[in-house]
Amino acid sequence: MKMIQAMALAILLGGAAAANAEQPLQRTDLLRSDIDVPGHEAVQVRVDFAPGVLAPNHSHPGEEIAFVIEGTLEYQLEGREPVTLKAGQSLFIPSGVVHSAKNVGSGKASELATYIVHKGEALVMPVK
């Protein structure tokens, strides 16, 4: 079931890749746990971007801390100037803020996304 959800999300955010090919945007769920704040949970996800791939505008039902593991990612938060982060740098994204992320480097880019979100809500909410 978890694999089906990950595939559906990859299609939603980045499109499907050909069979046996690397997906352009791949989300891997690492951790999901209740926390001491009632009605909230911590979620940790690894997101891998192929070169040039954009995770289009979306938001989350809580805060996100994005840590770039490898490569170079450009984040665009609604109402702010774009910020470009390299491996080892982090960004705080407030709850509900519409944002996008794009791999602007020549190779693969990866982030570790840690969320503190409302339990039971969709983690990623696409924005048109």
Q: H/E series, N to C?
A: HEEEEEEEEEE
The CATH topology, please?
Answer: Jelly Rolls
Helical/strand content category: mainly beta
The CATH H-level homologous superfamily: Jelly Rolls
Which percent band covers the strand fraction? over 45%
Largest sheet: 5 strands, antiparallel
Known CATH architecture: Sandwich
Bin the helical content. Answer: 10-25%
Number of helices: 1
* CA distance, first residue to last residue: 27 Å
Task: Provide the low-confidence segments as ranges.
Answer: 1-20
SSE topology sketch:
Blueprint: H1 2-14, E1 25-34, E2 40-49, E3 54-59, E4 62-70, E5 72-77, E6 83-86, E7 90-93, E8 99-103, E9 109-118, E10 125-126
Antiparallel strand pairs: 1-2, 2-9, 3-8, 3-10, 4-7, 4-9, 5-6, 5-8
Briefly summarize what is shown.
This protein has 128 residues and is mostly beta strands.
